[in-house]
Structures are given as structure tokens and as C-alpha cells.
Specification:
With 141 residues, the protein is of the alpha+beta class. It contains 4 helices and 6 strands. The longest helix is centred in the last third of the chain and has 19 residues.
């Protein structure tokens, strides 16, 4: 089972306040533990929303770009992990070990091909497998 662990933004992260050396070292040690355990597939921090944009899509197929920053800091994402574990309970145990002193993270399960039932035809499954293999090759180079 794969889960996305979403690190919620804070006023500091939205202001661009960078972590201290100690905080970076603690996060590095935590990430190393995740990697050694074989559960971390990806993990990244994100720049503040002032450097981002949102694309809004309309029913007619048109789109509009809205530049950041965005209000409602508590609704924004400051970083994430993708963890592969055996259960919801396991991912929650890992998340509770994260070296945060305040803030909040959200844990969401990632869909797998089997979750889509009959709508995921053999042809669509093959396409998905091909794309995943291409992405994995590019990450390896």
C-alpha cells in the first residue's frame, strides 16, 4: 500500500523561513530511517506558494492561471513523502516518528490499479505499467 504524507504549510514556511541546521539534520536522520526500512519512495519540501501558481479549469475546457501567494495557509502543502507500507497502521506509526515540534500532516492512501475495478481494462493497465516503467527508468539515470 502506498500513502502520501502531506506536510501542511505554516506561516513560517509560507514566509520562506528556512529550517535550521539542526532541523535539517533531524529530518535527514528520519529520512535515512525511512530509506533503510525500505518504505520511502519519494519525499520533497516545496517552495512557498508565492512562487507557485494554480490552474483553474472551466466546464468549457478553458483554463486560467492564478499566481500565488495563496491565502489559507492551513490548506497549503509545504512538503510530502510517498511511503510504501503494509497497512494504514504502519504508515501512521512512521508518521508519528517525524521530527516535527508543531504543525500537521495529512495521510492519504494512493490508488492502485486494482482499486478501479473493471474500468481498469487490460489495455489501460498495460498503458499504466508502461508509463511507470518509463518514469522508473528516467529516475534511475
Amino acid at each position: 500500500m502506498r500513502f502520501m504524507v502531506i506536510v501542511k504549510a505554516s506561516e513560517d514556511s509560507e514566509r520562506g523561513v528556512m529550517p535550521t541546521e539542526q532541523e535539517l539534520a533531524e529530518m535527514g536522520a528520519y529520512n535515512e530511517e525511512l530509506v533503510r526500512a525500505g518504505v520511502m519512495l519519494a519525499g520533497e519540501g516545496l517552495h512557498p506558494s508565492s512562487r507557485g501558481a494554480r490552474v483553474r479549469f472551466a466546464a468549457d475546457g478553458s483554463s486560467t492561471v492564478v499566481d500565488g501567494p495563496f491565502a489559507e495557509t492551513k490548506e497549503l502543502v509545504a512538503g510530502f513523502w510517498i511511503l510504501q507500507v503494509s497497512s494504514r497502521e504502519e504508515v501512521l506509526e512512521w508518521v508519528k516518528k517525524a521530527p516535527f515540534r508543531d504543525g500537521e500532516v495529512e495521510v492519504r492512501q494512493v490508488f492502485e490499479s486494482d482499486d478501479f475495478g473493471d474500468a481498469m481494462t487490460p489495455e489501460l493497465r498495460e498503458q499504466e505499467d508502461r508509463m511507470r516503467a518509463t518514469v522508473a527508468e528516467r529516475q534511475g539515470s
